[in-house]
Structures are given as C-alpha cells and as structure tokens.
TrEMBL record, chain A:
This is Branched-chain amino acid ABC transporter substrate-binding protein. It comes from Micromonospora musae. The keyword Signal applies. GO terms for biological process: amino acid transport. Residues 1-33 form the signal peptide. Coiled coil: none annotated. The lineage of its organism: Bacteria, Bacillati, Actinomycetota, Actinomycetes, Micromonosporales. Gene3D superfamilies: 3.40.50.2300. Keywords: Amino-acid transport, Signal, Transport.
Automatic annotation (TrEMBL), chain B:
GO terms for biological process: D-alanine transmembrane transport; L-alanine transport; L-isoleucine import across plasma membrane. Pfam families: BPD_transp_2. The keyword NADP does not apply. It comes from Micromonospora musae. This is Branched-chain amino acid ABC transporter permease. Belongs to the binding-protein-dependent transport system permease family. LivHM subfamily. It is a multi-pass membrane protein. GO terms for molecular function: L-isoleucine transmembrane transporter activity; L-leucine transmembrane transporter activity; L-phenylalanine transmembrane transporter activity; L-valine transmembrane transporter activity. CDD domains: TM_PBP1_LivH_like (cd06582). The keyword Magnesium does not apply.
C-alpha cells in the first residue's frame, strides 16, 4: 500500500517537473541556460546590495544605494531586463563581519540573483562563501582587497580597481613628485594592510622604503606611532587606512614637526578627514582614489540626474554602484536567464561595455583590466583632482 | 628619548584620570564599573554639545571656553554616574557579584548605543581645537596646551587625593572600603557616600573626555571602549582600590606603550605592554601599591 502510494506520488511529481520544464523551455526560447531553482519567471529580478548604513563608514551607504537605485530605475524605464523589472534590496553591512554575514544570508533567502554590494573588504570577505553556495554572482563595486579574488572563487568580480592597481598608481605619483624615502602606515585591517604590503614590494630602488608602522584603529593618540615612523626620516608618508584614524595621524604628524608629503588611500577620501585633521594640517595632503563623480569628465548630466532624483549630490562609489547594476543587467541579458553559472559566463565574456572608469573587460582573476586610479589633493579644505595619471 | 617619555606621560595622564574612577568604585564597593569608559565618552559629547550651542562665543575664548565646558561636562557626567548607581547598581548591592558585573556591561552598552541614537553613528569634530606652536624642551616637542592639560590632570588628581585623605567624606569612604557594615553601625550614611564616590569618579572621566575632545578633535560613540579597557588595566597595574596606584598605573601603561611602539613597532605595542603586565602581575599580584588584603570573617 505504502509503496504503491509512494510510486503514485513520485509519478505525479515527475509529470509535474516535466510540465514545469516544458514551460521553462518555451518561456526562455533557447532553453539552454535555464536554471533549475527558479520559482517564477515573471516577477522582478532581485539584485542584492550590502553597504554600510551604520557604523564608522555609514556615510558611504546612501551614495552606493542611490547610485544603484538610479541604474535600476533607468533600466526599468527602458523595459527592464529580458522583459522583467529589476528590484534592488539593500542590507546593512556596517563595515563589520557579523552584520555583513547576517545581511548576506537575508539577501540569499530573499532570492537575489546578483549581488551588487560590498564596501569594506573585511566585511565583504566572509560573505563570499555565502553567495557562492547560493550560486549568486557578486559584482563588488567598492571593496577591493586582493584577498577578495585571491581565493579564485568563480562568482566574485571586482568593479573597483584593486589594491595592486592602487599601489601602482601610488608609486607612479611618488616617482613623479621625486620622493626618495617613503614610509607606509596601515591600520592592520585586511584592506589597509593589503595596499601597504603591495606598495612595500614596489619600493625597492628609488623611492626606497623608509619604514612601516601599523596602528590600532579606534584610539586617539598616535604620537608614539608617529614618533616611530619619523625615525626613518621619510620625505613621503602613505597612509592606507580609513579617514577617522587618518585625520588624527595627519594632525599628529604635523604637530610632531613633519613637513614632508603625505598621501592617503581611497578609504580615507572623505570630507571628515579634513575636518578631523584641521584644514591647516590637511592642506596639500594627496590621495589615491578611483574616479568620483566630480572628477569624471562629461559626467555633468549624470550628476544632475542623480541630484534631482535624490535631492543630494552623489559621493564616492555612487558611480561604481551604478555601474555594478548596469553590468549585472548586461550579463543577465546576454545570458538570457538569471542562472548563476550562465551569468558568470556572460560576465567573463563582456568586452568593451562602457563604464565610468573606461571600457570593461575582466581579467582572468575577475578584476578590472585597468583600475582608473587618480590623484586627489586637499586644497582650501576641499578634496579636489590633482592628477589623472594618464 | 625625551620625546618618548613625554608622549608616554601625556597619554598616561588620560589613562590615569579614567583609572581613578575605576579604582575608587572598586575600592569602595568591589564593583568593576564597565560603564566607566562610556562616561568618558559622555563627557566628550556633552562638551561637544555645549560648544556647538555656544558657537562663535566659544571659539573666540578658546582655552578658557574649554575649561568652562569641562566644568559643565563634569557636572553632567557626575550626575549621570549618580543616576547609574541609583538605577543599575544600588538595587543589586546585596546580589551576587556576577549579577552586578553583568549590569555594568549592560549599562555600558546602553550608554554607547543610546548616544548613537542621539548623536548618530558618524564621528564628530570638536569646534574648538587645542593646537599651539611647540616649544623645544630637552629635545622633546611640547605645546603649551599639552603642558596645561597635564597640569589640569595633576591638579584634579591632587584635589582627589586631598579629598580622600583630608576630608570627612574621604574618611567615610575609606571606612566603607574597609568594612561597610561596621561603617554603617558607626553612623556613616553609606548610600550617600557611595553616591558621592560615583559622582566624583564619573566627573573625572567626563573631564578627561572633554580634554581628549579638545586636544585630539575627533569623538565618536565607541571612543570610551578602548580607553575603558586601558584605564582598567592601569588601575590593576597600580593596585586596584588604591588612588595613588591608579595614577602611577596610568603613567606606567602610557610609558610602556610609547616605548614598546618605538622599539618594536606599533603592531607589537600591545603585545609588549601586556606581556610586561603579565610578568609584573605574576611577580607582584597586588599591583604597584596594592595591599595584600586578608579576608576577614
């Protein structure tokens, strides 16, 4: 009796599956790439974004979220992707591993097809296996530690320039301004140490490495670290951490009588850096940074669209988040489905798709083939473009 | 080398000011008040609030404005300490010590994330900054402002020492720390004295908060966490429960960090300082000035 019933049931299930498969086949046309796990094919395609909405980097969250939303709205106005609308789901990453993994699990449960978020590398890193297990491709717009791609996960793509590319640009600029002895300071986090390590490897001949120092984030007094770094008598100091400590370190370097050049990496590019250091101490500080809306030529119309839509000007990583959504849409269109493997294949095949940072083609490591870093400088208390390094 | 010592002393005087509150409260009711570092944060934010409201008036006065603001912040954090004791600790005075410890951790979180609700998660920058031209003293670069902050810290500590050793309240505090029940029988209002202890300890932390805000410039709702741990360490080095010990402990920890950073680099600083601490406490478990306490029945 039981076995009869089971057989009956399994036959019903088989027929059902066949029917669904047939429907899928007809719906997709070619049917080759259709995924197994899809529940419905006419609802919106959900894109997930993890971004800091609270915590030390919470200023960045809205910039990324709005940038992505702008792209979603533009694409939907043009009829969406494969006849389906796009929808953006945002979760708080808080620049903290615990919040980020919780957020990633929430997004996966909500059925996101592509992830277009990730700001802090240390918080993004633990989310990689979660998205990988769920078969969700990740287009990471901001986080750019080499560790993100070092594990060679096939679902991870970086839209921002990498630490290696940032270090290359930093070195280029150091040579340009004639630095001879360069000292590096980091805050011992994944992202910051990564840039310091790769830069240290490049500082072999001239300019030479004149010392390295790691500070503990979250403190106020870095005078001991400043003292230690000045032992090597550097004429150029490169800080690779975030702006909170960066501001304090710049101020304390100047107070200790250091008159040489100071440069900060992209995590420190924030108006608060200047506020914390004080405008006098921050004057003339350089920064390596990927393109921001203000420094991109010909982005005036985009900035105007963004400003009129959200009532505030775009900021760092608005453009990268916007691009991440567009790339995701392009890949889904090319793949003809939202199946993870098909989308990853489509992403790998993209060649020449126009981004703010130039035409897109991913390297075999899934990073940008050109990083697009440029040099900014603090002038009259504002951070402005100094050199495009072109 | 003089620069190293100077840096160490400067940081150490902040640790010492915060450590005093820890050690006073522990000395009198054997409670590790984990919310103490957050009262330092509260002081910094009260100072920030007052300075922002005062606006241009405060900026013109500079250092004097900071002194006035410091007094206001001390009153507010002192009162907050009173409230904390009344609400979170007094009802639990007869309870097992672990319960009170957990209440203290809870109070710490409540203060931190309460402040986050009020002031937001982003760091704030003090509108009045202490920055002066440094003068050269025996090979160390010292600004007048740094020196005056140290003088203020020393004055506050001297005042406290006088209060504990030279006044009636101080005598009552010392009596309670030896035996609260006996003190009660001798006609001491134990509750009132404990409340006063909390007020004084919290006010000192508030003063340190305003000084840190004015000197370093950046404040955020989690700023009390690290310094709270450091001050606790300083109190233990000095011999917890001992007022002079807390001052010595703060300065010792500051110097250890400064020298450790210089010799073996910033990433090894805490390893250096805390290895030293472990060795020191193994050899002398009661700290620099701590007394061997014999359990009385």
């Amino acid at each position: 009796m039981t076995s009869y019933l089971t057989r009956r049931l399994s036959r019903v299930a088989l027929v059902g599956t066949a029917a669904v498969a047939a429907m899928l086949l007809s719906a997709c046309g070619n049917g080759l790439a259709s995924g197994g796990g899809e529940k419905s094919d006419d609802g919106p395609i959900v894109l997930g974004m993890l971004t800091p909405l609270s915590g030390s980097s919470s200023a960045i969250g809205p910039y990324m979220k709005n940038g992505a939303q702008l792209a979603v709205d533009e694409l939907n106005a043009k009829g969406g992707v494969n006849g389906r609308k796009l929808e953006l789901k945002v979760e708080d990453e808080a620049c903290d591993a615990k919040s980020a993994t919780a957020g990633a699990n929430k997004l996966v449960t909500a059925g996101v097809k592509v992830s277009v978020g990730g700001y802090c590398s240390g918080a993004t890193l633990p989310t990689l296996p979660i998205f990988e297990k769920a078969g969700v491709p990740m287009l990471i717009p901001a986080a750019n530690s080499n560790e993100l791609v070092a594990q060679k996960k096939k679902n991870v793509f970086l839209i921002n320039g990498t630490g290696v590319q940032q270090s290359d640009s930093a070195l280029k600029f150091m040579k340009k301004v004639g630095a001879t002895k360069v000292a590096l300071m980091d805050d011992n986090t994944s992202y910051s140490k990564d840039i310091a390590d790769t830069t240290a490897k490049l500082l072999t001949g001239s300019p030479a490495l004149a010392g390295r120092e790691s500070v503990t984030a979250g403190e106020s007094d870095y005078s001991a670290n400043v003292n230690a770094i000045l032992k090597g008598q550097p004429d150029f100091i490169y800080w690779t951490g975030y702006y909170q400590e960066g501001g304090l370190i710049i101020r304390q370097l100047r107070q200790a009588g250091y008159t040489g050049k100071i440069m900060v990496a992209d995590g420190s590019v924030d108006q608060k850096l200047v506020d914390i250091a004080g405008p006098e101490a921050a004057a003339g500080v350089f920064a390596t940074m990927t393109q921001t809306p203000e420094t991109i030529q010909g982005a005036e119309k985009w900035i105007a669209d963004y400003t009129s839509k959200f009532g505030a000007a775009p900021g760092p990583y608005s453009t990268q988040a916007y691009d991440a959504v567009r790339v995701a849409a392009e890949a889904v269109t090319k793949a003809g489905s939202t199946d993870g493997d098909a989308v990853i294949k489509a992403l790998e095949g993209i060649d020449g798709f126009q981004l703010f940072s130039g035409p897109l083609k991913f390297t075999p490591e899934h990073t940008l083939s050109s990083g697009g870093f440029q040099i900014l400088v603090v002038e009259n208390g504002k951070i402005v473009l100094e050199d495009t390094l072109q | 080398m003089t620069q190293l010592l100077w840096n160490g002393l400067f940081v150490g005087s902040f640790y010492a000011l915060v450590a005093l509150g820890y050690t006073m409260v522990y000395g009198i009711i054997r409670l590790l008040n984990f919310a103490h570092g957050d009262l330092y944060m509260l002081g910094a934010f009260v100072g920030f609030g007052v300075l922002s409201v005062a606006g241009g008036l405060a900026t013109g006065l500079g250092f004097v404005a900071l002194l006035i603001v410091m007094l206001i912040a001390m009153l507010v954090t002192g009162t907050a300490g009173l409230l904390l004791e009344r609400v979170a600790y007094r009802p639990l005075r007869g309870a097992p010590r672990l319960s009170v410890l957990i209440t203290a951790v809870g109070a710490s979180f409540a203060l931190e994330y309460g402040m986050r609700l009020v002031a937001g998660p982003n760091p704030e920058v003090y509108p009045v900054r202490l920055a002066g031209d440094p003068v050269n003293l025996l090979g160390a670069r010292i600004t007048i402002q740094q020196a005056s902050l140290i003088v203020i810290a020393v004055l506050l500590m001297a005042g406290l020492q006088w209060l504990v050793m030279g006044t009636e309240t101080g005598r009552a505090m010392r009596a309670i720390s030896q035996d609260p029940t006996a003190a009660l029988y001798m006609g001491i209002n134990v509750d009132a004295v404990i409340a006063r202890t909390f007020f004084i300890g919290s006010a000192l932390a508030g003063a340190a908060g305003v000084m840190a805000g004015g000197y370093y410039g950046k404040i955020d709702f989690l700023m009390g966490f690290v310094i709270g741990l450091k001050a606790f360490t300083a109190a233990v080095i000095g011999g917890i429960g001992n007022v002079k010990g807390a001052m010595l402990g703060g300065l010792t920890l500051g110097l250890l960090e400064s020298i450790g950073t210089h010799w073996i680099g910033g990433q090894w600083r805490d390893v250096f300082a805390f290895t030293f601490l472990i060795i020191f406490l193994t050899l002398r478990p009661t700290g620099i000035l701590g007394e061997r306490v014999t359990e009385r029945v």
